[in-house]
Structure formats: structure tokens, C-alpha cells
Queue: 2 jobs
Job 1
Amino acid sequence: MSDVFEQVWPIFEAETREQAQAIAAGVIDLERPGASDRAGPLLRVAHTMKGSAASVGALDIERAAHAIEDVLALAEDGRGLPPHAVEAVLRAAAAIEGSLCGDARGRIPDLERVVGELEDGGASGGGAGPGGRAPTAAGAPGPADLDALSEDVAALSTSDPAARAARAGRARAAAERLAAGLRGHAAELASRLARSAAELEAGGADVAKAIARAAADLVELRGALAPAPAHEPAEPHRDGGGARRADERSIRVDAARVDAIAADVDQLVVGVSRRERRGRDLQRVEQALREAARLLQRGLAEAGVKEDGLPRSLADGLDRLRSIGADFGRHARELRRESDRERVFAHGLRDALLDLRMVPAQTVLGPLRATVRELAAKLGKEVTLHLSGGEVRLDRRVLEELKAPLMHLVRNALDHGIEAAAARRSAGKPAAATLEIRVEPHKDHVVFTVRDDGAGLAPERLRVAAVQRGIVSAAEAARLTDQEAAQLAFQPGVSTAAEITALSGRGVGLDVVAEAARRLGGAVSVAFEHGRGTAFTLEAPLAIAGSTGFLFRAGGGLGILPADAVERVLLVSPSAIGTVAGQATVEVDGAPVPFSSMAQALGTTGGLTGAGATVALLVASGGRRVALAVDEVLGEQAIVVSSLGRRLASARHIAGAAALDDGRVVAVLQPAHLLGVGRLRQAEKEAPRVRIVVADDSLTTRTTAKSILEIAGFEVLPAADGEEALALARDPGCELVVADIQMPRLDGLALTRRLKGDPRLARVPVVLVTSLDSAEDRAAGLKAGADAYVVKRDVQRGKLLELVRQLLPA
Amino acid sequence: MTARGDDAAPVGDDAAPVAAAAGREGILRQRARDLAQARETASADTVPLLPFEVGGERYAVEVIRVHQVLDARFVDPLLGAPRGVVGAIMARSRPVPVFDLRHLLGLEGGGLVDLVRVILVDDEGDLFGFAVESVSPTIEVPATELRPAQAGPFRWMAPGPIAVLDPARLGVGGGEGG
């Protein structure tokens, strides 16, 4: 048995046991016609059981669950299940439970019989027979029989005689069957119960007494069976021993409750550090008091008053001041000692709780198996999945956060990464693709790798998309290496897909993956080899815990960075700021580090203050560093980072919020994002470029206009016709349109009308260019709403540039 | 239902507790059903709404969606927050984001100057607040007078007309651009 299996088994076992019990408890209701609404939830339970059994490779349970599903589906039309179908489900549920005990490890010894019975139950179709009991294979009585019997006996207390008689009939039959399968005293008890039931079935006089008798017999029967179940040897999996003991040792607790306790413990830890700070405050008071006493003494000495000549009240006051100071000192030391002790306990408690929350990665890898199978079938691709590292344990909350991103990476790989079988064959690759999902622990981090052997990424397409989206300029995109360009896939709106597919959509998703990683304080990256495959790596911490925050003031507000992201605090003098490739830098340990103001990096107001030295935080994440100037450093604090909910989940800079000691709420920032944003912002600062769309069907005119404007520092998006220009102008950031009048598809006048008719674009100035300076053209252009008009031959003479500068806001 | 009191009544010796318990349970169950129905009919007739003003306009939100109304002075600004977020406030012992409803509704104005109240709403466990200019006492509006809203983050139009907000549609999607 593999290690992974060993790790997952306890979870699978507990879950499946609950599911089997839920099915057993619920299926009885389905016998009654009109209970179709109860069938749905049970079907889901069976379906889930099937899925998880498949993911751990418990094939017997998977088959049994599948057969149960088939039977339960019959009840959906509301006609009720035939009794023998209910019994078959009960027996199957019991067999599944039995297979979880001891060494069975998911094997159902009499699987064929169990499934056969279920199939018989299903084959006879819905619609309960008129109380009749279909002959079933005379198996030995199982615990389900006893449970079914209890159910029937419990239902005898009804005021409806017909219903009671029916129940009694079933109870009698069940008791008789039990009696036949049992020996000795238990068999006797079962027969007695059958007699009581028969009496009720016949509608005897003393109903209440007969019910009480039946109930008492049942209790006795249960007692007789419990200590040493007198089952036939054909039921080996009801020994229960090992499982019972395991049950007693472990309990299942709602994860939300553990989280709630953990949140309280985090508050406790914060409380302890708050008390530590109070201790320090008290010590400061002590020092201040001593100092005050000293000052008084010195003052008196300077005034020529001798120590022994002091007025009595003054001497007493001085004494009292000294003794209060000493008291304060003592209290402060005691407080420190106490909080030291508390800290040990609180941290121990937190660690223990953290350990409770650690679950094997298999809990998310397992479901991926089903996803891959399903998706591959849907896409008509053949995929072999390799999972490894499922035994790595990590914080359940981290796993929860990673569930959706991982699912997305898998979908992405199947949909965009892996080619269709024909394409693979023609590329000389085996038709069956390989998808590998690996989990590896790395110090206090865990690395998820999703690797496919598909076609790899198309960096040129990513470059184009990123430029169109305004994420990088064309020049920047050209400078990026292919591997660097690949990282653009994590930017919003940029897709690895050539076309939109129903499965992964377009450009939605990988940015979400990146956000999720950042939120966790992790990172994501991609590497590819053309024609050979793509590997996404997702790095996340093993655990989320209460942490230490670094508090600072910037841009007029307070902010917190995780303390481990702040490498140190720098004092930057104006002369220490240099530039490397147009970017402000400071030298740290002999190497230039990008330098910016925190406020700017966050996109709020307030830049670098001119004179004097600046305090900057050296922020490091994922091997990169940036120095960010802040207004003030306020020190470290133990904090509990809380999520701000779904509505702020996509906020770029904010990982969450934390409450300070004084109750103020402060944003906790994402260091990874500051690094990325810092670089982009600086690139923008270096060239605050205005974007202009130039539309002309003549390549020459287009190129001329483009180079004139580019030399003047504008960014130019060229378009070959009006339609293209309209599309480019709709992208955010376009500030002006230069268009030829004669163009295919959509001419300059129509383009102008469309732009001016769009409320979002109406303010964008339009300059029309034409070959002839004709009065009609000019009038038509102005009527369409153009802001200016220029003749082609004037373009080169600086007229275009002049107009553009006039029309753009200062 | 047939009244067969003799079956439910305590008869005989050891049967008594069982049958009595069953009878009592039956009565309690029936009572619970009646009570539940009574409450349902009451709530089906009128819908309690909490009216408030923002950007000089009157809106409302269903009382059932409101978690708390707080003083906007307790809102702390969040450094680096996207536009439309006025800050965060402590509620249920954790920080909860507070949005500028004027921004969410595309109305003019900004800052926290004239926003005096924060209405905290619960969208399936996702707690968030929006700042408003004033909050009026709850009103009861007959359900028959509520018409489904045609557009925007609204659930209904109540007479007045007052647009009734749908918290589930507030501030999700399209909030953050590139």
C-alpha cells in the first residue's frame, strides 16, 4: 500500500463511514412513496462516496457506491423504493462500513453478492410492491437488519392502524430473518420479537402493550448481539475492534470550529505581546520617576538646600517618589515574567492548533484526478495523470485557498497546454499526454508543480496581448526574454489560449491564480519549452498563522507589511539615490536596489519629499528587493491578519487587515505585489507616455506619423483601418486618435462619428488627415465631430505634432 | 387526520412513558407547525425595509440583510485600497471593509466628509459595509407593492419610488480595473 494511501486513509475512512451511515439512515424513508425530495441529497452522498473512493483507489467501494446510486436514482420519481431494494442498499452500506474496519482496507469480500443484490433491487424498477417482500438471497443477517428492524419497531407507535400493520409486517419478517440467521439466545429473542410483531400485524387488542413488548425485545436483542456478535462467519467485517478503537481515539470536528478557536488563540497571542509592551511602558514610567526624583534632588542642591535641612514634607515627598518608582519597577518586572510564561503557553497552544489544521495535500490532489478524467474525456484528449507528494501536510486554510487555483492550472494544462492526439502524433509525441502534479515541501514553504508535455506557451502572443492591454509598452515587451514574456500570462486579461474555449475562457484565470498565491504570501511562475511542455509552479507557505507586522506611515496613512518581508530599514540620503537604466536606485550591500516611494507604489498621493534623508523599507520577496520610502516607521506588532472578504479579494495591494492594540484597523499589504508594482510604476515614471492611435491604410503615412509622434515621446498604436482604430481606442489609456479620411471597412468620418457617439470616448480628440485640402472634406470632418484637420503634406512639417500638443490636456 | 385518542393516550403499565412521549411530541410538533405558518404569512404580507439617503437620493435595503448600523466615525482608512473603498471597521471582532455607496452606484462625491452612518450587510457570510448620509426608521412595505428592479444592483422598486439594494450584487465584479 502506498504512502499516499496510508496518509489519506484515516480521512477517507471517517468520511466514508459517515456517508455510509447517512445512506443507511436515509434510504429507509425512500420506501415510502412521495419522498422523492429525500432521494436527491442521498444520491449526492453516494456520488461523493463514489468519487472519493475512486480517488483513493478503493475500487470495491467505488463499485458498491455506484450500484447504490443506481438504486437511489429510482426513488427520484417519487414512487418509493421496493423493500428489497432498500434492504440491498442497507446491506451495501453495512458492507462498505465493514470494509473500512481492520485490515479490509476498502475491500468488500462479498462484493459480487452486494452489487448483485443492488442490481436486483434496481432491476425490478420503482414502485413498491403491495407490502410484498421479494425473495432475496438468503444471506446472513447483518447489522443493517437490526437497524432496519429498530426503524420498523420505532414506527409502530402510530395512530394509523393500517400503517402500523404494514410496519409490523415488515418488523416480523425482519425479525424472522434475523432469527433464522442467529443461534442460541439471540435467535430466541428474535423469534419472540417476530411473535410480538405478528400480533400487531394481525391488529390485536392490546396495541400499546404489544408495542412495548416489541421494543423491550429489541433492546434485549441488541444487547445480546453487541458484545460478541453471533454472526455467521460469512460476515467477517463486523468485528469492529480496530475501527472502534480508532474511532474512540479520533474525533471529527467541524473545521470552522477549529478556525474559530484558532482565531481566539491568535488574539490571545496578540494579547500576550500587548502585555509585554505594557510591561515595557511601566519600566519607562519607573525610569521617569527616578529621573524626576533625581532632578528634584539636583534642583535642591543647586538652590543650596542641604539634604538634612530639607523641610519634612519635601523630604517625605522625595522618599515617596523613590519608593513609588521602585514599586513600578517591581510590577514591571513581574509583568514581564508573567507575560514571558504566558507567551510560552500561548505559542505552544497556537502551534498545537496549527498542527491540528495540517492535512495531507492529497485532500486536494484526489479530486483533481476526477477532474482530469472528466475533462480529458470531454476534450477528447488522452491524458495520463501522475500525482506525487499527496502526503505533504499543510495548513487546511492554505489548501482551501489553493484548491481553485490548482483546479485552474489543471484545466489550463488540459485545455491549452496539451494538444489534440492528432497534433501530438504529427509532432512525434505519444498520443497520450502526461500531466504531472507534484507537491514538495521546501523549508516552511510548499511548492506545487503542474507540468504538461504539451506544446508550450506562445510568448509572442503573450507579448502582443500584454501590449494591447497596456501592461507593458511595445519596447519593453520586445526587451523581455521568452521566459520573462511567459510570466505575462499571470497579468489580468492576458491569455495563453489562442481562442476562447468554453472550458477555460479567455484571459480569465491565471491572474486569479497569481492573486491567490500572492494573498498567501507565495508566488507563481511558469517555465516552458517550445513543443515540449509547460510547467507552472505555485509556491505557498505551509501554514497561515498569526504573524508579526511591521507598522509604518506612508502617504498620510498607516500600513502594515508582514515583518518577514521587511529586510531592514534604510536611511537614504538624497545623494545616495542614483539611476540605473532610468530607474531610481539606492545601493544596498554594494548592489543597486530599485527605489520608490511607498505611496507611489500604492498609487496613492504623496511622493518622495525633497530635502533631507528619507526612511525607506527594504522589502524583499521571492528573491527580489525594493526600497520603498515611507514617512515614518512605527515598529513591529503581533497582528492577526483577517481577510476583508470577497469584495476586496482582487484588490491589488491589500492582503487583509489587522486591528492594532488601540483598535485602529490597518491594511496589511502584499509584499510580492509591491515589488511588481514598484517596477511597473517606475517604468511609467521614466516615460509618462500618452497613447495615440494612428489610423491610416497607407503604411508610409502611418509610419511617418508614428515616428514623428514617437520621437516626441508619445506611444503610438498603429491601425490599418477604422475598425481596428476603434478597437484600439476602446482600450483604456488611449488619449487621442489620428485618422486618415479614406480607409477601408470604416472610414475616418465614420470612425469620428462612432468615437464621438460613444460616451466613454467622446472626450478623446480626433485629428483627421487627408491628402487634399478641400473645403468639403474639412466641413464633413468638422460635422462628424473631428477636433482638428491636417493635410498629409503638413504632417512632416510639424503641423501634426503641433495640433496633437494643442489638443492633449496639459 | 383521524382522532384516535385511545391509541395515543397512556394505556397499561410499561407502555405509558413511550406513548405519552409520542403524544406530547405530536402536540409540540403541531404547535411548531402552526407557529411557523403564522410567521410565514406575516412576513409574506409586508417586507421591512431600512431607508437611507446617499448622494441626496433615497434608497433602502431589506432589514433582513442588515447586520448592524454603525457610526461612520469608527471607519479607519485603508492604505492602498482601491477607489470606492472608504476603509474598514471592526464588527463581529474582525475588520470589515466599508465601501462608498456613491462610487458603487456611480454617483458623484467622494471622501468621508458627509457620510455619517455605515450599514453593515451580510452577503452569505461575506460581511461588508457601505457608508451613507443618513438612515431613517424602518418601514413596512406591502409585498404586493414591490416591483422587481429592472437594472443596477437593485432587487426591487418600492413605492416612493425607493430603489431597494441587493447586497449580493454590490461591489462584486468589475470593481478593479487593470
Job 2
Amino acid sequence: MIQLKNIKKVYGKKKTQTTALSGLNLTVEKGEIFGVIGHSGAGKSTLIRCINLLERPTSGEVWVGGVELTRLGKKELQQHRGKIGMIFQHFNLLSSATVYDNIAFPLTIRGAGKAEIKSKVEELLSLVGLEEHRNKYPAQLSGGQKQRVGIARALASDPDVLLCDEATSALDPQTTDSILSLLLDINKKFNLTIMLITHEMHVIQSICDRVAVIHAGGIVEEGPVTEVFLKPKHFITKEFVNRDSFSGEHAVYRTGQKWKRLVHITYLGSKTYESTLSQVVRETGVDFAILQGAISTIKDTPYGKLIVALEGTEDAVQQTIQKLQEHDLDVEVME
Amino acid sequence: MDFSSIDWNEMGGATIDTLQMMGFATLFTFIIGLPLGIILFVFSKSNSIVLQAIYRVLSLVVNIIRSVPFIILILALIPFTRMIMGVSTGVEGTIPPLVIAAAPFFARLVETSLREVDKGVIEASYAMGASTMQVIRKVLLPESLPGLIAGMTITVVTLVSYTAMSGMVGGGGLGDLAIRYGYYRYESEIMLISVVFMIILVQILQMVGDRLVIYFSRK
């Protein structure tokens, strides 16, 4: 649906050049929610603004829905932009227009008739749950309500793609969750492709199918959220994922015949709720202590992450690790 | 002071003259100044080198006109005024210099209020596929409406004092009356009443302007 080919964006004149994006490639499939995460200054904002050419890349191709936008003339680009909805961190609503008129805006600029506008806006008002606020002005709304107007406005022109530029960064946690679940609903209901950028892992974890990690103008890691989240490879990804990583001094030590080994066990899917660990230690006769653990979900997939100390003879500990792996758990022995 | 000798008919005529000058000058100032202000704003933001150059030229012209004292401008424009109006005095003769002085002033105020419009909203409109004309009509103007009204109010009030100044060169109206009777003939009663009339006029204009600004403010 969205394809970026070797996108470069350089700001400034020769002497004071800064590179925002350095030859970036990215593909977003139809119907998926794709997240891009990165620190501020990593280039994520430039990246999302390159997709509808609010920023023109210095070089490279932007394809959306099979059309190369970077090749289009002004008029054609205006037409195609209608098929790309966008919502913003600061909502960017017309302060002089009511909720109703804000949502109608994309339709008015397209020259739609009154009846068409009315039926579309009514439908969207009920979709985002703002029917009774239709005649209010943005200044009279809360942040979450403003973003709902933003979403309704973005959907008014029946877009193929929705771009979310830090759409929840200005909202409190509860409101963030309600907006995220609205986005997820829309994605399912209309099979709408969503690309979002954020600096919050929580956003990625809640609704994204795939994620790309952007750092210094390039993508350093990309894949299904479960994979990237549970087995981060690049140090930036690890920073986002392991904010609370365990730092035990003694990863392995022995006292007499007893071995003690710290292992990192990752559960995914239905295995999260099974009693694999206790079954295995019962068989091998090893004791264990849970030092740290979390069980949660990534989008709809449950997962668990445990740091466990296994205690027993060297053989028994080895055997335990092996058996856990045979049960399809991801076991990493900490060094 | 003796107010009994005042010719109220003449006062009334002068007031009507002032209102006429102001009305027409305001109309043409708006017609010229608003597009000029929009052009200044849009061209200053443009990436095109040509438009940027046009912006610089226009900006220079606007600055030059604004730095010339109005009284000098009236005199300098006499040939021009004669050319287009046939006369260079009276109500008709005053309108061209008034417009030429006030339009660049108003244009700058327009440019400033357009700058106040949230850049994010403009960007969002482009992202939705709006053309520059649509952004001007449906975003910039409605969003800056309170600022534009405030700017217009300031301009109209400035026009009132300009009409008075044009009395110096036989421009007609209350200012003319004040100068002819009050200054040249020491009839300070007429000067006083003329000034009071102008104060009342400015008060009314400012009040109406402020009310409208509040009415159209949504923030």
C-alpha cells in the first residue's frame, strides 16, 4: 500500500546540511497497522510527512496505492492526497469552524454536494461518538474529543491510508487508550491501512501489527511487533523495550554441588497461560525462583517474559533448559 | 465661548463629507489592501524564487509608502489624483491619497494576522488535498477573521485622522472645517465641536470593531 524507496531528505544549504533521512526503504501492506518508533530527532516526523509529500524528499520514490506520488503534478497530487487521511499530535482543527464543518472540510474542498456531505458527516459523527457535539467549536472540546474530530475528518474522504503523526502524544493515558481502540476499530471495520509514528512503546504494543525502529534517519530494525518486542536486536530497540531490564550481578555461580543459573524465558501466544515451567521442574527436580516477570499482550497476542533463577545440579539445570526449549519456549541463558 | 454663531448646516455637511470620504476610502482600502496582504503573506512563504523576488519588491514599495508622511503624500499625489478624479480637492480629491496611504498599512495588518494562523491547520489542509486558493478562502481568511476585523478597525480610525489632515489642502470634511474656522479664523468653538464629533466617530468605530472581534472569536 505504501512503499518508500531509497528516501533521502536533506535540510539546509551545503555548509549547514543536516540529513533527516538517509536512504530509507519501507513497505506497508494493505490493511495492516504499521508503527514507526523512534526518539525525537530520529527522523520519524519527516518520514511520515514524506508519505503525503508535506515534505518533498530530496531523492527517492514514494508510492501509495500503486501510484508514484513523487512523479505527480500539483493537481494530481492534490487529488491523491484526498485518499491519504492524516491526523496530528495537535489535532490541527479549524478553530473557526464547528465540529460538523471541520469533518465536512475535506468534502467541501472536493466540491461535494450538501446532501452527500450531510450523510457522510452524520455517519462519521456517530462512528466517533460526537453526535451531540456537532455544533461546538474545537475550543469547547477536550483533547480526546478533538482527536476524534481529527479522525472523523481524516475518514471523510474515504481514504485508503491513514497517517497518524504522534496522534496520542498530547493525550493522557486513558484518552490515549480510547483513541487507540478507535483506530483499531476503524482498521478492522474498513480494512484501512494505518501508519503511525510514536515514541511510546505502549502505542506500538497496543495496536500495531508490524513495527520499524528508526534511528539517525534510517531503519535499524523491522518486523512483526511480537518478534521485535520480545527479541530486540539493535540497542535502540532494546532501549525502547527493556526500559526495566534486569541487572543481576551474578548470572551464574555454583556453591558446592549446587548450580544456579539465570535464564530469560519468553512465552508467546497460548503458552503464556500454560503451566510448562512447573511441569518441567517437577520432572527434573530443579528449584526455581522468579526474579522478575511480566505477562501482558501485544495487540491480541498474550506473552510473558520471566527472569528465573534455576537451582540444582549442573546436569539437572541443563536438562531443564533443554526441556523448556522442547516445549517451544524461548529460553535465553544469561551470561 | 459662544456656540450660537455656529452654522449647524455647515457642520452637518462637513460631517457627511467626512463620512463619505471615510466610507469610500475604507471600501477601496479593503478592496486593494486585503488581496495585497494575502499576496504578501503567500509570496513570503513561497519556495519559488520569482515569487520571493516579487514579495521583496512589494514589501519595499509598501514600506516606502508607509514612511512618507501623509501630508506630503497628498501633495505628491496631486497630479495623480487629478488624472483619475479630475479634481485634487474636496471629497473626491481626497479619496485617492487616503486609499494609497491606508491600503499598504492595512495590507501589513492583514499579513500579520495571517501569520498568526496556526501553521498546523494550514498544513493539515494541504494534506487533505486543498489548493492554495482553497487554503486562502476556507482556512486563512476564516481563521484570521477576528484579526482582520481588528486590523480594519485600526485602519478606519487611522483614516479618520487622515481625513482631518487632508483639510490642510482643502480636502473638505470636519478636519477642513476645524482648520479653516478654528485655526485660520480663531473660531475655536467650531474647532472644538469638529474635534468632539471626530472623537465620537472614533469611539463608535472602535466599539463596533471590538464587538465584532469578540463575536467572531472562537478561541
